[in-house]
Amino acid sequence: MCPDPVATYAQPAGSQENRRELLKIVVATSLVTGLETFDFTVFGFFAVMIGDQFFPATDPMTSLLLAVGTFGVGFFMRPLGATVIGAYADCVGRRAAMMRTSWMTALGTAVIGLCPSFATIGVTAPLIVIAGRSLQGFALGGDIGVAATFVMEAGPVSRRGYQVSWQLASQGAAALMGASLGVLLTSTMSPAALASWGWRIPFLIGLLIAPVGFYVRRRLRDDPIPAATARTSGTPLVELCRGHGTTILLAMLMMMGQSVPVYAIVYYMPSYVTRVMHMPAITGFLTSALSALLLVVIPPLSGRLTDRLPRRKPLALFASGCTALLVYPVFLMITRASSALPILFGVGLISVVVALGAGVVTLLVLEAFPARVRASGVAISHALHVALFGGTAQFIVTGLIRWTGNPMSAAWYVAPACAVSFCALMLFKERHVETRTGTRALTTIFAPAIRRGRAKPEPKPPYRPKLENPAVPSRKPAGRRA
């Protein structure tokens, strides 16, 4: 049984002090989540170098396949981390859970960044890398759901879309930082130096997660849990399995439409451009940097739009449908490109539509769970879909290309995944929140008509014939006498 959650937080009423507190919460959670995501995803940007150092093979594609397989190991640890850390957050507190994920991420990053190569310590090297990758996945699996829940519960309902969008923007910023470092290192270092030790620089920079996470998150006010939900409850996992299994399944499939394109196109593009298209590595990093920049800029704008709409689901359906329709043309454009411009345009187009709907889908899932199991529900849904679909995307795409020899085979996995996500979104039932900005705006506009429609008509007075006054002589002409 979980102890009573601490319910000491009131929704901000709009004062300057409350706005500063809300800004501090958004910055603290987004900044640290972004750093944790950077530590986790930078592995994908430098998968080619990591594969050569820890998984040497005669075939370069085999080495890359083993490296991206290790990249996926971290994703399979995320459901376990989501279950443990999410339950801890629902029972003990959101802030306490987020403090622990920061330290675990830093430890896993240090293990990978400082591990000797295969040539130095032999088969122990890849085992150490896998252990560090597993610890990173365990920590991030719980942090993303808990941080998104903390931010959503901290502010007013009318700004939920904008607040949650910064969680998505921070993950885009992590990708932008990783891709920018890739551009910087490939343009300033020789290929031999980059493959030997230059790839470790991003991991060492990622160790900033420890002091930054400790400083900003320990200053947060604990647990913005509504007082109405502060009651003793059973184990969150048991309640989720009994009452919210369908919601978790649909949430997994809905979020798959964002994670598969991001991991199979954005994070995989440096390896795809280098090993499949045989183009300079800087082209792949520039493509990922542009995509990551769009993933930073678009979500806050989409969040503001979401807060002004009476319903969230139509915007999510539009973005999901566009993503499914654009995947095949984009890959066709990339495979036939002879320069970097078509690749930049195609990947940028996919990134815009993915970023447009990612925050809306996340908010729909957050609002679907009650507060007492929200952190666990969102964390498990996110971790499961990333483990099953996102973390395996690079491995599956690489395997399809190696098996068929056709670069277009990458679209054979991404396009059906986006189509299934669209169907799940159609089946998902949106939870209506009456205090949204858009709903209030429509209610204000149509309030007079609503009042007129609800008002009861006044009863008509009974008919009373008008009687003539006998004191007044009649003006009717007298009839003829017989």
From TrEMBL:
Annotated transmembrane regions: 25-51, 63-89, 101-129, 135-152, 164-185, 197-216, 248-269, 281-303, 315-334, 340-366, 378-404, 410-428
Superkingdom: Bacteria
Residue span of region Disordered: 453-482
Residue intervals of the Major facilitator superfamily (MFS) profile domain: 25-433
Annotated keywords: Cell membrane, Membrane, Symport, Transmembrane, Transmembrane helix, Transport
InterPro entries cross-referenced by the UniProt entry: H+-coupled_symporters, MFS, MFS_dom, MFS_trans_sf, Sugar_transporter_CS
One cellular-component annotation, GO: plasma membrane
Location in the cell: Cell membrane
MF (Gene Ontology): symporter activity
Skewed-composition ranges (Basic and acidic residues): 455-467
Membrane topology, as annotated: Multi-pass membrane protein
Family named by the database record: Belongs to the major facilitator superfamily. Metabolite:H+ Symporter (MHS) family (TC 2.A.1.6) family.
Name of the featured protein: Alpha-ketoglutarate permease
